[in-house]
Structures are given as C-alpha cells and as structure tokens.
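Input record (one chain):
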Amino acid sequence: MKSIQYIKIGLLAAVLTIQQGCNEDVLIQEPDHVISESLVINSVEKLQDLLNGSYSEISDGSYLGRTLYKRAAVKGTDFRFVKTTFNPRDYEQTEYRYEESSNNNGSAESMWLQCFKAIGNLNLILDNIETAEGNDSERQQIKAQALALRGMIYFDLARTFSYPWIREGASAQGMPLNLSSTETITERSSLGETYEQIITDLTAALNVIEDNTWEQGSTKYMTKSGIHALLARVYLYKQDWENALTYCKEILSVKNEGDLMDISTYIFDDYTTESLFELSITTDNSVGSNGLGAQFDFRDGGQGDVIATQTFVDLLQAYEGDPRAALLLEDKEGTNAAFVKYINRSGGSGLSIHNIPILRLSEIYLIAAEACANGATGGDTQALTYLNTLISKRTTNFQASQATETGEALKARIAEERRRELALEGHAIYDYIRTEKDINRPESDHVNTGVNVNNLNIEATSAKTIYPIPASEIEASQMQQTKGY
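The corresponding structure, as predicted from the sequence alone:
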C-alpha cells in the first residue's frame, strides 16, 4: 500500500485541541508544524482533552452538525428545498438535483476532510494512550471511546462514499483505512475490509468500556449501549440480520418500552429517555445559523430552506394523535410544512444550540423489527411485536394503526415507520440505497424548487446516490475514483 508519513499538531487558543491529517484539501501532506509530543500526548489528561476535541470535530457542520443529516433528507422522498429570495446553497442544490460529479460534488469534499481530520485526532490518541502517564481506568475509557468513534466515522464514510452492501457485498470499493497517526493510506480497501475494521474497532471498544451509568447527560459520550446500537446499525447495513438482532437485544435488556417517548413526552430535549448517544452542542461548538436546526426552521434567523413534501405531511397525519405531526410548523411559503425537530434551547432556531441525536431507542426497535422480518430469530411474528411496540407510543388510536402485515408488506411498513420516526436524523437516502429501493419523487411534491422534472427520480443503484471521492483527493493521492464517476 502507498503510505506517506505526516504529522500535524496545532493548539487552538487556550484549549488543547489537536487537529491532524488533512490540509490543502487532501489526505497527503508534508509536515508544516510540529510541536513536542511531550506537550500534547504524554498524559492521560491531555489525551482526554484531545478526545473532547474529537467530539467537537464530529459535531462540526461539515459532518454530523449539518451535512450528513441535511444531505440524507433532501436526496430522499420526504423533504425539498424552498425557492425563496434566500436561496439554498448551490452545492446543496447539486445534491438535491442529483447532479454530482467528481468536480462538482456538493458537500463531499468538506465532509471527507472533516471525517479524516477527526480520524487523525483519534489515531493520535490510540497510538499514545498505552504509554501516557495517568490513571489506568481513565486510560481504558478514553481508548474505548476513541475506538468506537473511529468505527462510527468509518461507517459513515462507507455508507456515504461507497455503494451499499446489497449491491456487490464484500467485493465493493471501500475506504482507505488510516489507522495510524504516522502514516496515511491512500489505497482503497474493499467494502468487506472496511466493515471488518469498523466491527473490529467497535468490538474492541466493548471489551474495555464500562457499563452505562444512565446518569443525566452521560450519553453525550460513547457508552456500552451506544456501541451496541452502532453495531446493530452496522450489521443492518451489512444485512447480517441475526447479529443486528443480537445487539438490539443487548440494548433492550437494559432499556425497554417504558423508556420510549410517548404522546405526551415526544420532544427532542437534551438526553431524553430514548438517548443512547447524542452530540452535546453548546455556545462553544455551535455553528449558529449553519447548524442543523436552523436548516429546517426559519424563525429567529434560521434558514428554514428545507421543508416537508406533501407526501411526508400526509404520512405524518395518517395516525390519530401522532405527536410527530405536531412538529409541523409554519414554513417560508406560508404553509405548515416546516418539520421542526430541533429547537434552540432559548427558543426559535437561529443559533442551533441543541443536541444532535445519533442513536435512539426507537431506532433499535425498528432495527430489531427489520432484522426479524428478514429472517432473524422470531420472524414476522416477533417483527410485528417490535414494530407495534413503537407504534403504540405514537398514536392515540393504536387499534386503527396497528401493523398486521407479513412478508414484503411488513418490510414496507417498517420502512415507512422509519421515515416517520427517524426523519432528519441522517437515514432517509441511506435507507433507500441500502435496500435498493428507487427514489421516486412526485413532481407535485417539488414545485417552485427550480428542479427539472428529469432530476426528480433516480434508481437506487445510480452512482449519484453516493458521493464521489473529491477530485482534489484523486489528483493529490492517485486514489481510485468510485466506479460510475
């Protein structure tokens, strides 16, 4: 494999934050600034600071703080841009219209760089944690969190820049696996190798992570249940239904239906009873009007340039008393199609100071249902139990909305429930392509958007459903471009 040595370490203000890896829009670079290692990596305490900085890097607007969630929404079937005097960014419109190319790739470049920047931080922690001076118990928890976060980032890279497992399985193109702070790998692994590394990181983290405390706010860090939830999600995408169900059961042994939000408690406050892992957003790391909440709510200076389609509005209103329908508020066009899931703590949307949910208990019920419907232990009968447990918490008339389907109809019902429950949480487009379901967007849902009718529908197998490797990366490192670009 081609590898090039590099080190980049920086100190920002008075807070110890280390940024390693990417500069000049590429993974490869020559050293441009080196600070004594003893200053930044010789103690557990300093590596904890770097881990805290890594959480902030993950919450950046170029990754989970906006790009992944917003991209997932507008490339799916349930949200559209609003064409107003304040028009959406051109690069985001590129994604919405499925017009990506290696040189015109929407937010691909910024997300790519941000992810590998965070991976660089985590690699530095993992390369030095065993020799750093300090408390051994703290050392192991830092190591576990760093491994789990690295696994999560590689999973998000794989599902965003690689074709899904259902298409070519393990032989598909995967990601370059950078696992060291002293070298950069530019050769792409196979998707099988990428998933193997993701699972290796997550299971290694499980071996040393402490049990959950479930104290208020504890889920702003990666926990044992958070890792179980990530593994359930990874195995879902890998179509390993039995393992997906196994890790769901690990969570459901400590959290149950009593922890699901219900009609009266369905609100996205910080650390709800459903929280398994969420990113803490404060005034210190908020990206303001560029943050997640401001993208969907125009109040108090929010951009509000993405609203629900009529198809999705109808879907939300199908259940009697569904609290998710209550999240529909006035939008820029004067209708009630702004789906306001995230609200600034002080009210309105302007600063996007709200936590970002990554893993919730409701998703675990839906993963378990899908796994069983696809042949995991319990089959359709158990799938209905998991699905109806969630539905019973989302309607005042469960009898009228209860799922009774079997076979393919049951799988479709589970997919429909994922659209309702996990909207704006980074799943929409991914759920279509990982199951090879074509994206069909009715013309009536996308009026006044400037989108040509020929750009509304796309096959799930199209290259345009995933990001290309940024052209700057290809030019600098000779990395292999994704097939189809």
